[in-house]
Amino acid sequence: MSRYFTSRAKLLTKVGEFAVLISSLYSSHFGSSIYFITVYAWFHSYDSMIQSFLGLFVIAFANHLYIVQVAKYPHVDDYRRAILDMDEKQFINVRLVVLEMRNHFSTLYDIITKNIEKIKKPRNSNMDMLY
């Protein structure tokens, strides 16, 4: 779990840097706060998704305690079927989380590629060309 919090802190730092970059790019416009809110909302939804994903793994490992029952009573097929159903449900949940992660990162990629010129060459660097 400590690795999760360390990587979360690094992600918070990167998102903060990205939000500062976005707000500095659009500081002369009214919409700079809108870009900041968009990036913050994106991160908040991603963070809540990761927390629920970790919760799913905890629940899945807690439910696998039924394996002890299978070892104790190998002739009962209901325990085996229950474990197979739990594994299938966990696979579906992991697949959904991976698809959500793909969607979040494709959104971030889209934001960055649409603003790549503004990121490489901020508006303030063009001010010396006017004079």
TrEMBL record:
GO terms for molecular function: endopeptidase activator activity. One of its GO terms (cellular component) is nucleoplasm. GO terms for biological process: regulation of G1/S transition of mitotic cell cycle; regulation of proteasomal protein catabolic process. Residues 57-128 form the Proteasome activator PA28 C-terminal domain. It holds the Pfam family PA28_C. Keywords: Membrane, Proteasome, Transmembrane, Transmembrane helix. The chain crosses the membrane at residues 20-43, 49-71. Belongs to the PA28 family. This is Proteasome activator PA28 C-terminal domain-containing protein. It comes from Strongylus vulgaris (Blood worm).
